[in-house]
Give the backbone structure.
Amino acid sequence: MEFVFVLTKYNDASFKQQVSEALEKRTELISRKEYPNMWKYIDKMNSKKKASEEVLEKRYIRYKVYGIFLMLIGFFLLIPSLVKPKEMLIPLLAGAFSAGFGVLYFRYGRKPKKEKLTSFDKAAIKLLNEYDKIPVGKVTVTFSDDKVQLAQNATIGYDEIDSIFITENFFILIWKEKITVLQKKDLSSHKVEEFIDFITYKSQNLFDIIITEKTY
């Protein structure tokens, strides 16, 4: 039995997102094996109930209002106190503290900026640029009973595979610190479900199968 993928043009958006997430997940899995105690603490912190977007939005507004209010009080006390600092030491200190806390509250009320590209995002983009050079419909990857036939007649055994990630649109092979990304839609023979059953059977005691959300 052979499963043949005929490579076609990759979807940029889904490739970048899903490959980046798979690379990040792989790094996490390796880290979990090396530092289990650290991840117990991280999982405990992540298990705490997080506030909804609506609650966070109200919290940001509330912090801004507090911040502006405290800054106004602080400046109201601080500015007159600067004229006679020795005689108005207490209002001066109170004004300084109030203005300081107002600035802090106002800063807490600012929405966090969207994160820039992560190292995983950059790696996915770099890989996509390489895949864009592949001639459409002229390169195949074949899974047979005893090996995986890659492009340019390169072959690997199933015992050389470290893991296979199954995402919504892709099969992502990690082998010898290398990566091969195959689109599900490029599977020209058999059904996707049959291929998943096949690689799951081949993975026994050899490599990991990691299925992410929304695999179908």
